Amino acid sequence: MIILHLGFFVGNCYLWGETPAEHFPKRRGRPPKKPKLLPSPFDVSGAKLKLALAAGGIEIEDKAETAMTAWLPSVADRPVGSSLLVAPPPSADQELTIRPWKVTALCLLPDDAISFLTACAGRRNLAPSVVIGADIAFWVQALRFVGSLAARGRFLPGVKQEKKGYVAVWEPVLSGNDMESLVALARSMPASCYCLTADNMSPDIHAPSVVFGFSALIIDTLARQEAGLLQGKGRARAAGQTSMHQRWLAALKTPSGFLLGDPAELVKLTYQIKEWRRRVYTLSAAPYRFCFRLEEPDPVGSGSEDETWVVRYLLQAKDDPSLLIPVLDAWKGGVKLKITGENLAVRREFILTALGQAACFSPQIEDSVRSGIPAGITLNSSGAFDFLRNQAPLLKQAGFAVMLPAWWTSQGSRARLTITGRAVSSPFLSPGSIGLDDVVSFDWQVALGDEVLTAEELAALARLKSPLVKLRGQWVEGDAGEIKEALNFWRKKASHQLTARDVVKLSLGVVKQPDNLPLRSLSASGWLGDLLQRLQGDKPCPDLPSPLGLNGQLRPYQLRGYAWLNFLSQIGFGACLADDMGLGKTIQCLAVLQHRYEQGLRGPALLICPTSVIANWEKEAARFTPELPLLVHHGPARKKGNAFKKAAEKQALVISSYALLGREGDLFQKVQWDGVILDEAQNIKNPLTQQAQAARSLKANYRIALTGTPVENNVGDLWSVMEFLNPGLLGNQAEFKRSFLVPIQIQHNQKVARTLKRLTGPFILRRLKTDRSIIQDLPDKIESKVFCSLTQEQASLYAAVIEEIEAALDISDGIQRQGLILAALSKFKQVCNHPAQFLKDNSELAGRSGKLIRLTEILEEILAAGERALIFTQFADMGRLLHRYLMETFGYPALFLHGGVPKKERDQMIDLFQGEDGPPFFILTIKAGGTGLNLTQANHVFHFDRWWNPAVENQATDRVYRIGQQKNVQVYKFVCKGTIEERIDEIIERKLELAENIVGSGESWLTKLTTAEFKQLMALREEAVGDW
Q1: Residue 551 in domain
Q2: Rounded distance, CA 1017 to CA 1028, Å?
Q3: Opening angle at CA 500, ends 498 and 506, nearest 5
Q4: Domain shared by 879 and 810, yes or no
Q5: Of 96-110, 298-312, 713-727, 978-992, where does mean pLDDT reach its minimum?
Q6: d(CA 283, CA 290)
Q7: Distance CA 351, CA 357 (A)
Q8: For residue 257, what are the domain limits?
Q9: Residue 989 burial class via C-beta count within 10 angstroms: exposed 0-12, middle 13-18, buried 19 and up
Q10: Is residue 541 part of a domain?
Q11: Other CB atoms closer than 10 Å to residue 502's CB: what's the count?
Q12: What 3 state SS string does 101-120 have?
């Protein structure tokens, strides 16, 4: 286990790490007053650091490791680990001090640091057993901030004097909001970001300086990379360059940036550049901004091209934007201003500097400066439109304040030409009696803002030939193209015929509006109006009684979810049910299938899920919808070709896996499916995978996606799921990235986020266990069986154990036979748990056990929900494997309690887990942790292997399900399908009335079975093995 850290020191990024110590040096005698600099017991060697990077797919220039000093919180003779993954926390009575420790570090080149941080973005682990520290997560945030500076051009070239000489550099320019963002970022900086120094130097603890130093390093690198300047190496020499300025420009194009030349010339150049850049700092340091305010013509004017517009020049106070002073007043001496803290000369220098910079963006401003200090400029309507459309955005981006009329937005005039529409349908009919593909009566109108226009007014707009026109007392953008589109639309609007389905798609933005004019509003009456209101969430879906053939009772919130799924399926739209885990997505989905079957819609539905849950779906379908014809397409004996097509068409439900969907996509395409359902739909979040492409290619009347994760919060993953459900809703992938992903994820544009939610909201239903409307419907404890398949390796080991036991059973009796059966039970459990437990070979764990695969999937959802879990096993060796695996896989600490843990350490574990920021996972052996503990911070309990004693398992569950528990508790009992585990579980379920006898005898009741019965019990069925 390695935790990676990144520190910044004297202009460089250093990668170092922590790993659990094999032993701690023992302190002898009293601690010295000036302790010797000792190696950290958690230090990671340079070779291991490079291996960790390689495991994460990161290549860096092979650079020699270096020794650094890390100033770390320490107790007694050791540093405190940054996480439980490294070492247990110190006890409350131990005194914490900050002490220096020697650590090994790799000095990363700036471009390597950028690549490394980019690879770490959004990740907890770089690779198995390689955890990303909190400081690296901070530097990822800082990199995003610096990237935004670079993208907006907030940097300038300069020159610095260093020990080795003069260096040409690119430096960030921070002012206003950018400076505030840097300071806010610095406040959240972990101390480990600046804990590294050389030798015994004390660290620089002024966080803003550290962030600025990092920003300067990255800006310099990005600026050279962006211009394609990292070509040659070495210093900028005099050859071929006739002046010091040319050498400086050339040095900006080299990786090192070194400048050679006469010392006096270098000093002169430094001064000249400083003076050149002073104008930038003149504007950023002033207590006011230069402001341009566009003022409209006289309200009684005609609104013609010759109307006079004024751009007024003002100074705007930074601390009070409502305070505006005309530039002419600010220029005059002797005028008392409310803006204080500067003299007249500084004020005038600011005005001249600002106008000089603004002149670069506007020829009219440039002309105005030539005539002295102007009050502003006058423009005609065309000039005003040019200022609004082109000049104002540039001035705003350059840091000027720009005040525009309220009717103008960044997209153009607020009052735009739009179309409105109203569909008319009978109030007495429904989608059942009139099809969604029938044509409906529709009334179209062209509007300007809230005003409906006549054909005559549109024609008058077209004749004005001005980009800004006045209509009914308001100024609007007279876009010639839009006016032409509106006229064309008006002339042919009678020929626009729409089906009810078209109206629904238009209202949701799924299809483009007629003639590409913006659709301002769309309404409908009658049953179609009801339909639109339900889709947009203004009206609840109609109540739907539970299907007659459903063998189970739907809770109130499940009835609502089932009705919602059926409603969207009925009108041909895809639905994403994203309920919190444990709320019963499976039964809601099965209820839809049962309802359609009872309504005579008996085409096959295809359900695709992870291999690890195929057995669960099969069991749940048999339990809740026993009359639905069911086919599981899975395993080596599955049908292929026409045999599969014929078999599938006779079913109500066909269950298969993502693995087979990717490999056998052509086979699934041969069937015309009534519906396609994706369970754990996050499996198609990458749209380029075979399984995602295959899912999108399937033909079906309706589509459903099930997921326990909040898909609407993961913008990058949303497109693929929505493209499966409702193709075209969010445009193609490039359009989605341009219109939504970049504005939301990079620019944090809340308006775009709201637009995306409005588009996708009608098709996503997510309820949480904490919702008031849900929690009252839930039982306090929900128990479920989790049926898992064996991997091929597990099946082979299981078969070998059968062969060994069968031979021994035939020649044993009495106590020997009882011991043989109990030993066999233990071996079968170990094989079902994991091959590494059975083989005891300390081998790789991932991907070799069906139980472990399913546990990982569920724990991912628990982590995403911010909840915690207990995991019980009866085997200490399996507990150790789980402990190692969970920490390596998730990068979070996990606790492990077994019989060998001393009472003091056991109490510390409990306190730690019950703490507010305790570890998310607690692994316990059922004997050590099954009784006497209070662990109510967890609300999920896993029985990884079974004691086959209900009372013992219930006692273990009660560590969580007890007084003090504030949440609903979910219990998962793992069972390997087609093995002895499933058959014992079935026996116990059938004989619950004999539970007391079972409790009293533990597992010994199994030894009373005849040899034939036990052989039948341990037999390996064909369905036990999954396609992994």
Answers
A1: no
A2: 25
A3: 70
A4: yes
A5: 298-312
A6: 8
A7: 10
A8: 244-284
A9: exposed
A10: no
A11: 20
A12: EEEEEEEECHHHHHHHHHHH
Residue 234: the pLDDT is 44
Closest CA to 832 of 1013, 617, 977: 977
Query: In degrees rounded to 5, what are phi and psi of residue 589?
Result: -70, -45
Query: What would the pLDDT profile of 585-601 be if each residue is shown by its tens digit?
Result: 999 999 999 999 999 99
Same domain, 524 and 638: no
Q: Which of 6-15, 197-206, 207-216, 815-824 has the weakest average pLDDT?
A: 197-206
In total, how many domains does the chain have? Answer: 6
Q: What is the pLDDT of residue 24?
A: 64
Pair 753, 802 in one domain: no
Q: Which residues contact 853 (CB under 8 A, 6 or more apart)?
A: 610, 611, 612, 788, 847, 1028
d(CA 284, CA 290): 11
Residue 654: exposure state from Cβ atoms within 10 A (0-12, 13-18, ≥19): buried
Query: Are 520 and 581 found together in one domain?
Result: no
Of the three residues 377, 405, 433, the one that is the final residue of a domain is 405
Lowest mean pLDDT among 300-314, 355-369, 801-815: 300-314
Q: How far apart are CA 617 and CA 608, in angstroms?
A: 10
Residue type, 923: I
Contact 319, 291 (CB under 8 A): no
Of the candidates 129, 311, 281, 157, the residue with the CA atom closest to the CA atom of residue 219: 157
**Torsion-angle region of 412 (φ positive above 0: left; ψ -120 to 50: alpha; else: beta):** left
CATH number for the domain spanning 701: value is: 3.40.50.10810
Instruction: Please report whether residue 370 resides in a domain.
Output: yes
Helix boundaries (H) for 340-473 = 344-358, 363-370, 381-386, 392-397, 455-464
Q: Do 208 and 151 fall within a single domain?
A: yes
Smallest Cα–Cα separation from 516: which of 418, 420, 440?
Answer: 418
Q: Is 999 left (phi over 0), alpha (psi -120 to 50) or beta?
A: alpha
Q: Identify the three-state secondary structure at position 639.
A: coil
Which pLDDT belongs to residue 541? 83
| Same-domain status, 280 and 294 | no
pLDDT at 416 (0 to 100): 64
Domain check: are 475 and 595 in the same one? no
Give the 3-state secondary structure percentages of the chain, helix then strand then coil, rounded to 5. 45, 20, 35
Tokens 């020929």 map to which residue? 495
Q: Give ∠ CA 296-300-301 in degrees, rounded to 5.
A: 65
Three-state SS at 335: coil
Q: Are residues 295 and 431 part of one domain? A: no
Q: How much is the pLDDT for 495?
A: 54
Stretch 348-368: mean pLDDT:
88
| Domain membership flag for residue 423 | yes
